[in-house]
Fold:
Amino acid sequence: MDSESQRRDPFASARVPEFRSLLAGRFLFIMALRMMGTLVGWWMYNLTNAPFAIGLLGLAEVLPALSLALYAGHVIDISEKKSLLRTGMLLYLVCALILLFLSTHWIAGRFAVRWIALGIYLVIFLSGMVRSFTGPLFNVMLGQIVPKNSLQNAITWSQGTWLSASVTGHATGGFLIALLGNSGTLATVALLISLSLLILLRLKPKPPLSESLERKTWDSVREGIRFVLKTRELLGAMSLDLFAVFFGGAVAMVPVYARDILKIGAQGFGLLNGASDIGSIAVVVLLTFFPFRRQQGRKLLFVVWGFGTCIILFGLSKIFWVSFGVLLISGMLDGVSVVIRGTIMQLKTPDYMRGRVLSVNSMFINSSNELGQFESGLAAKLLGVVPSVVFGGCMTWLVVFVTWFRAPSLRKMQY
Structure:
C-alpha cells in the first residue's frame, strides 16, 4: 500500500498488531480509572455533602501532577517506556487497593468521616504523582509504534478507544455503585487494572533514542519548554484547551446536579457523567472514516466556542434529558477538538522529544480537568452551583475570542 493510500485507509494503524495491544490495554486501564474517578466524586460528596470537597479532589490530584510533569517528561525520554509504564500501572493498582480498604465497613466503624475523607485525598494525591509519568506514556509509545504517515489515523483510533473506555467507565461506575457499593466497585477497578497490565506486557521494549541521553536533567527540561514556546501552533492549542476546560469544567458538578437538582440517583448520575463521552465517541468514529482535510485550526476554535455554549445550557437546565443532550453535544464538539489537537501535537514534535513535549502538554491539558474541577468547586461555593457553571461557559467564550485574535497561526493552521 503506497503512502497516500495508507494515509486515507481508516484501518491503517489498526493493522499494526502492537498498536492493537496498546489500544486494548489502554481501554481497560482508562475504564478502570474512570470508574474510580466516578466513584470517588460520588463517595466524597455523600461523605461531606459539600460541593467544594469535590473541587478539592481535583486539586489533590493536580498539584503533584503539575509539580512533577516536567521532570517526568525528561525521565520518559531517557527511559525504557514499557518498564516505566508497568511500574506506573502497578502503583495505580496499589492506590485502588488502598481505596478499597478505606471503603470497608471495618474502616467506617472505627474512623470519623473527616479521617476517611483525608485518606481519600492522600490516595488521590499519590495517584496524581503516578499520573505525571503514566499520562504521557501512551501517546509517546504510540509515536514509536505507528508509522508517521498513519499518525493522524492512529490518534483518532486512540482517542476513540480512550473515549469509549471513559464513557464505559463512567456509566458502569454509576451502575456498580448502585449494585455492588463502593467496595465492590473498587474491587472491579483493581481487576481491570490487573487485566490491562497483562495485555500491555505483550508490547515490545521501547528504548530511549540516543538524542534523549545527551543533556543533563535541567538542560533537557528547558529544551522541551523552549520547543513548546517557540512552536506557536503547539502553544496556542495547549493554551486554548487549558483555559476552556478550566472554566468549562461543568462535569465536576454532575454529582450535585444528579442528586440535588435533577434528582436522578446513582444510575442517572452514571449516565449523565458519561454523556459527553458518548458524544465524543460518535464524532471520533465519524472522523476515523472522514478526517478533516483543511482549515483544522479554524474548526478547532469554532468547536470550543460551541462547547462553552453547551456548558451554559447545562448549567441552566433542570430537566434530565435536556442536561443529557447538551452534555452529549458538548462531547461531540470536544471530540473534534481532541483529535485536532492530538494530531498537531504528534506532527509537530520530533521523536526524541516526545516525552518532554507531551509532559508539558499534560500540564496544560490533562491537569486542566482537575484545575477546572477545583475552579468549579470554588465557584460553586462562592456563587452557587448554577451561576458557577454558567459563568464557566461564558469564560470559555471569552477564551475563544482572545485566542482567535492572539494566535493567528493556530487559526490558519491546516495539515
The CA atoms of residues 209 and 352 lie 6 Å apart.
